[in-house]
Design a protein that fits this description.
Blueprint: H1 5-9, H2 11-26, H3 29-45, H4 47-54, H5 60-74, H6 78-89, H7 96-111, E1 114-120, H8 126-140, E2 144-150, E3 158-162, E4 165-168, H9 171-183
Parallel strand pairs: 1-2
Antiparallel strand pairs: 1-3, 3-4
Helix pairs in contact: 2-7, 3-7, 5-6
Protein name: ATP synthase subunit delta
Family: Belongs to the ATPase delta chain family.
Membrane topology: Peripheral membrane protein
């Protein structure tokens, strides 16, 4: 299995690669990816969960029991639950977001997909996301999976990042460009 050296070079990448290889051996890559999506959503919604994963003052044991409880509530697979326990034992839960991103990248690469991070000022409607996905798929020549987020600071427009390519059509950038041009 050919996994990018760039991903493996990071701590998060090494953990994500190990999880991917275990999931592939057990034939549960899709289930683990679904688990990580649930976990990512929970991290985004719960300040308490973020605090548990990022607070170094919480003991390993308390982190492990809290994360085990979260895994139970979310209905995560045994492999994902064990992985989270390992992260807690090794004090690596603070890197969970990076590990989720790295796992998604590895899984998408294995499927021949690319992930496009789409940042917009307001939540995009389903038809807008589908239209964007169609256009990006045509442009990239392979299946594009969208990962939408909202950043009100953009004011309007979109910023799309696919790998190292960035398409910035945000109003914020246009205003900054105009301001710099006016400064002379």
């Amino acid at each position: 299995m050919d996994i990018s050296a760039g991903i493996q070079a990071s701590l998060a990448g090494r953990y994500a690669s190990a999880l991917f290889e275990l999931a592939a051996e057990e034939g549960v890559v899709t289930a683990v990816e679904s688990d990580l999506d649930k976990l990512h959503a929970a991290l985004g919604e719960s300040d308490d969960l973020k605090a548990v994963t990022n607070n170094p003052e919480i003991s390993r044991k308390d982190q492990a029991s809290a994360i085990e409880g979260v895994a139970g509530v979310l209905g995560l697979s045994p492999l994902t639950t064990k992985f989270l326990g390992t992260l807690a034992a090794n004090r690596r839960l603070s890197k969970l977001g990076d590990m989720i991103r790295a796992f998604r990248t590895i899984a998408a690469a294995q499927r021949g997909e690319v992930t496009a991070d789409v940042v917009s000022a307001h939540p995009l409607k389903d038809d807008q996301l589908e239209s964007l996905k169609t256009k990006l798929t045509a442009r990239e020549g392979r299946t594009v999976k969208l990962s939408p987020t909202v950043d009100p600071d953009l004011l309007g427009g979109l910023v799309v990042t696919i790998g190292s390519k960035r398409i910035d059509g945000s109003i914020r950038t246009r205003l900054n460009t105009l301001a710099n041009a006016m400064k002379g």
